[in-house]
Amino acid sequence: MQPQRRIRTGLPALLLGAALLLTTACSGGGAGGSGDGGKGGGASAGARPGNEASQAVVNIKPDDGAKEVETSGVLKISSTGGKLTTVTVADTKGNAVEGKLSGDGTSWEPARHLGAATEYKVHAVAKDEAGRESAKDITFTTLTPKNTFVGHYQPEDGATVGVGMPVSINFSRGITNTEAVEKAIQVTAEPAVQIEGHWFGNDRLDFRPENYWKPGTKVTVKLGLDGVEGREGVYGKQTRTFTFTIGRSQVSTVDASTHQMEVVRDGQVLKNVPITAGAPATTTYNGQMVISEKYKVTRMNGATVGFGGEYDISDVPHAMRLSNSGTFVHGNYWASSGTFGSENVSHGCIGLKDVRGAYDNDVPAAWFFNESLIGDVVVVKNSKDKQIAPDNGLNGWNMPWSEWIK
């Protein structure tokens, strides 16, 4: 029994001794502590800085797993207690979202809207002043719009066009958030030139340089409309890139008083062609007009452009549209040969001598049709009419540049 009593009385002593040792180690030494305790002991010896938590905290909105997120104005990434060093936002196909870091490095926002009905993954890293990093990853999905719009554009992808051809986009819905929609469309040229957009009403946006394009210019248009809220509750659903090339320069000048058209290509007169312009009661617009459509044979009915039943010709040859309101330069086989170059008898169009059926390539109308590109310019002067409105066809060149860029 005596050994058992010794065990009971010895255990508290051992525990007390261990406690004293622990107290001495934690305190860095007693009153007369050793030099080693003063230099290497204490809290700094027990916890290495590399193991301490970073003071930087990454904050991301929306929350992880969020659904039906708005395509703009919601995604925000920031850091408190440090600066962002890495931000990656991409969809499930790996398409990255470009963004901009604030000057102080504490926040990041996307440079453009996000796509609709798309899942995005976000990875962000921040670093505190001690160089310790903190990271955060989330996934969210943007909304699926119930109402959408698209842009119908000219010219066609891959086309070679004349120097007057603008980029013209007609939207399927009226746009109220014009700034966001215009920002989502990029038009660039090689060689580079300043290109600006101009809205005609709320459903048409045209882009052009200050002066006609230089021949040989290659133009690229990127429609990044997917996810853009064009008007309340109506989102774009179009992502498309198209290109076109500017061909040779051809500008033809119609003088309604002399009944002649001078065709100039690359600065040289190609030919002078006798014409007939609008009669005194139905004059031709003045101004710069761009060929927007070409038809070897087409029907022209006066009722469609406000002339009632004055004419309905089913087989007008070599017709090229100059305005939305019905101005064409076209072949005319029904007027006498002496009309061309001597008098104005049309309902506002520019007529050139032709044959019925458009089979003769030697007549003036056929020659001009074959030598013309969509995007070529036809200038009318000395007509007793007003200047054509800039939005009547692809005719924005009639608007001064100072007004165009407003």
UniProtKB/TrEMBL annotation:
Pathway: Cell wall biogenesis; peptidoglycan biosynthesis
Keywords: Acyltransferase, Cell shape, Cell wall biogenesis/degradation, Peptidoglycan synthesis, Signal, Transferase
Bias kind Gly residues: ranges: 31-44
Region of interest (Disordered), ranges: 31-53
Name of the protein this chain belongs to: L,D-transpeptidase family protein
UniProt superkingdom: Bacteria
Signal peptide region: 1-27
Xref: Pfam families: Big_10, YkuD
Active site: 330 (proton donor/acceptor), 349 (nucleophile)
Every L,D-TPase catalytic domain range: 250-381
